[in-house]
Write a structure and sequence with these properties.
heterodimer; A: alpha+beta; 13 strands; B: two-stranded antiparallel sheet
Chain lengths: 463, 228
């Protein structure tokens, strides 16, 4: 097993920083020389995956779009060797593959994002208590860009919410893949289930970092290998969340669920809300998996939005004890995005479709059921070696469709069904057919990017 | 559905003189489902135009394929040349004498129990019945595509047209079909019925009184199911 070249791999791929502040700066390089000079000056600041003596005040990471690689002069032989998914203009691909249609169509996206003006993404994170160094780092990056003749075409700020929340109220970020040679701590349940029914195996690093063997034993070769080695592909999506609409509809659905199942005789409105929430996502709002606990104790069954479990247990499977989905519904969000062994074959159908998530909420948290008209949601970020095989399978086949789970064309309740029709079945005796929620999550931008290793960045920057 | 074919292009390689056509083979059949695979040589100077034309074909309801009622899936593909850069590729590498147009189709024939003589039924007369249908339903699309191929006679003469394409059929050794006796129309109606049933189930799931549920069902379902 080759060990990972941690000092060449960008830090955010293998390490979830867990920092509360983030800024995403999308830059356009109007001329090649300026773009390269900017890279050359920035690469010294890029945070790698090497060991931290102490936690830094800020981190800096860089990603490039296909248009950016072209603008920086990567050359046709290299560009021709890059995946079609990466090179296709995202405004053409997203409606077709990711179902960004209607209110999520590219025409509705934020200015500049997802166009061929978007070349370089600078990602800056600031740790707890370091608001000023963070602001300075962001200002510094913008100033450096300006000095080299780059244009800031889009800026997105984001910051963590209390208790690891995302805006719908769930503690988020659990269940990251366990990677061979990885640096983040991981526990049972994050890797690949083994046939003994007990243990789990770490995933091959090539599923997430190019240049190392993946689960199929493949690694990179060809004219782009120098660029790809120690890098990865990145999905960036701005997802606007209609929090009030979601909450209202969940309350109503929870009441209906109570009636269908007769649980309204024993559970009050708040308890039904938390149970309904757990059923549609697969985790209770504090992060505990419903597969491990299908009911909560009396004093733990309400207001689960107020705290997060520190280190929720991920050691669970679906196939043998919950095939029918009576504990964790077959269409629950986490069961769709990581089916584990639910698709049969001991989990082998899932192994090649995992992603690393590094998203961050944006916008102020809203309490209650009164909309304030402000923009809030999730900056969804994930890393994978192959868009088509990993992120796009999860999005298109597992979230936006139900066929893999024998659920027809039922979509993930949490992401919403932009047709406004359809259902989400909560399996049980009796089952409950929840109404699909339209328009609760809208795409407001998308980019496919490449996150190079540091030596690749230096090579790109060199004239 | 995927069609796995013998590489009949090897026939081309074996006969580098290029005088003979690939062997006419029977397509694969499962129930009333059938797979057609046609391979026709493209005039080399026309290959570029043909590829551009195929890329420009309408999508969805605007596709010429949408006018073929029994076809589940179909695909046109231009094979420019054999790939030779894979591990274990034969040496010396085989070469095609010209580009080829591949047309693959999976279809399900209608149930024609009312047609007394079996041999008159669409399914028994495949592939010719399908080829006749191509000519009668989308003649100008067919001309615009196969017009780039060597020896194409056009749609003027039905027998010449059907003979030309039948000669270019290669054997489909294996194909997958989900429901061997279900037509496109029946699939669409089943999906529509499923939607309507879902709406009913979702909207009436709280009904505790069986007779009221039955009443609602009897009232609403006639609008879903086709009248017998």
């Amino acid at each position: 097993m080759a060990s990972l070249e941690l000092n060449d791999i960008q830090g955010n791929i293998l390490r979830g920083y867990g920092f509360p502040h983030a800024a995403y700066l999308f830059l356009r390089a109007d001329d090649q020389a300026g773009g390269r000079a900017f890279l050359a000056e920035t690469v010294g600041d890029v945070t790698d995956a090497g060991h931290w003596e102490e936690r830094p005040a800020t981190t800096t990471n860089l990603a490039l779009t296909c248009a950016g690689l072209r603008a920086l002069g990567a050359g046709d032989p290299v560009l021709a060797a890059l995946p079609d998914a990466f090179c296709e203009p995202i405004r053409e691909r997203a409606p077709r593959v990711l179902d960004d249609t209607g209110e999520s169509a590219p025409e509705k996206w934020d200015e500049g994002i997802g166009t061929d003006a978007s070349h370089i993404l600078v990602m800056i994170n600031g740790s707890e208590g370091n608001e000023q160094p963070f602001a300075d780092a962001v200002a510094g990056a913008i100033d450096r860009a300006r000095r080299h003749g780059l244009t800031l075409i889009h800026r997105q700020d984001a910051h963590a919410l209390d208790n690891r929340r995302e805006h719908f109220g769930w503690a988020d970020g659990f269940g990251q893949p366990a990677i061979e040679g990885g640096i983040d701590r991981s526990g049972p349940g994050q890797g690949i289930p083994q046939d003994d029914g007990i243990t789990w195996r770490d995933l091959k690093p090539g599923e997430f970092v190019l240049g190392y063997p993946d689960e199929d034993g493949q690694t990179v070769s060809g004219p782009a290998a120098w660029l790809l080695r120690n890098g990865t592909f990145m999905v960036y999506r701005k997802l606007r969340q209609d929090v009030v609409l979601f909450r209202r509809q969940l309350y109503e659905e929870a009441a209906r669920y109570g009636r269908t199942t007769g649980l309204d005789a024993t559970l009050d409105g708040d308890q039904l809300y938390e149970l309904m929430a757990a059923k549609v996502v697969g985790r209770w709002r504090d992060g505990l998996a419903i597969e491990l606990a299908d009911r909560r104790s009396e004093d733990e069954s309400r207001k689960l939005g107020d705290h997060a479990q520190d280190d929720p247990d991920n050691d669970f499977r679906y196939h043998d004890d919950d095939g029918p989905g009576f504990r964790c519904p077959k269409g629950a969000h986490i069961r769709r995005t990581n089916p584990r062994d639910a698709l049969g074959w001991g989990g082998r159908m899932v192994t090649r479709h995992r992603i690393i998530r590094r998203g961050m909420p944006y916008g102020e948290y809203l309490e209650g059921l009164q909309d304030d008209g402000h923009d809030r949601g999730l900056i969804f970020i994930c890393f994978n070696a192959d868009f088509e095989r990993q992120f796009e399978v999860i999005q298109a086949q597992w979230c936006n469709d139900g066929n893999a789970f024998h659920l027809g064309d039922d979509k993930d309740y949490l992401l919403g069904d932009n047709r406004g029709t359809g259902k989400a079945t909560i399996q049980g005796d009796p089952p409950h057919f929840a109404r699909a929620q339209p328009l609760i999550v809208l795409t407001r931008g998308c980019e496919y990017l490449f996150v190079p290793g540091l030596s690749a960045l230096r090579q790109l920057a060199a004239a | 559905m995927r069609t796995v074919k013998r590489l009949a292009v090897l026939h081309d390689v074996a006969r580098t003189v290029g005088a003979a056509w690939p062997t006419r083979g029977g397509g694969s059949r499962s129930g009333r489902s059938y797979a057609v695979t046609l391979l026709t040589p493209v005039r080399p100077e026309s290959a570029h135009d043909l590829a551009a034309h195929l890329r420009g074909l309408g999508r969805g309801e605007d596709s010429p394929l949408a006018k073929l009622p029994y076809v589940h899936f179909a695909r046109w593909l231009v094979i420019e040349q054999l790939k030779t850069d894979w591990p274990g590729a034969p040496v010396p590498p085989p070469r095609l004498q010209s580009p080829y147009l591949l047309f693959t189709v999976s279809l399900t024939a209608p149930d024609e129990e009312h047609v007394r003589r079996r041999e008159d039924r669409y399914v028994e007369r495949l592939p010719e019945s399908f080829l006749h249908e191509l000519r009668s339903r989308i003649p100008s699309d067919v001309d615009a595509i196969w017009g780039h191929c060597v020896g194409y006679p056009g749609t003027g003469d039905a027998e010449a047209f059907v003979h030309y394409l039948a000669q270019s059929q290669i054997e489909t050794a294996l194909f997958h079909v989900g429901y061997p006796d279900v037509t496109v129309d029946e699939v669409r109606r089943a999906l529509r019925l499923r939607e309507q049933l879902i709406d009913f189930a979702r909207d009436h799931q709280d009904e505790r009184d069986p007779s009221r549920l039955q009443q609602a069902y009897l009232q609403e379902s006639p609008t879903w199911l086709p009248s017998s």
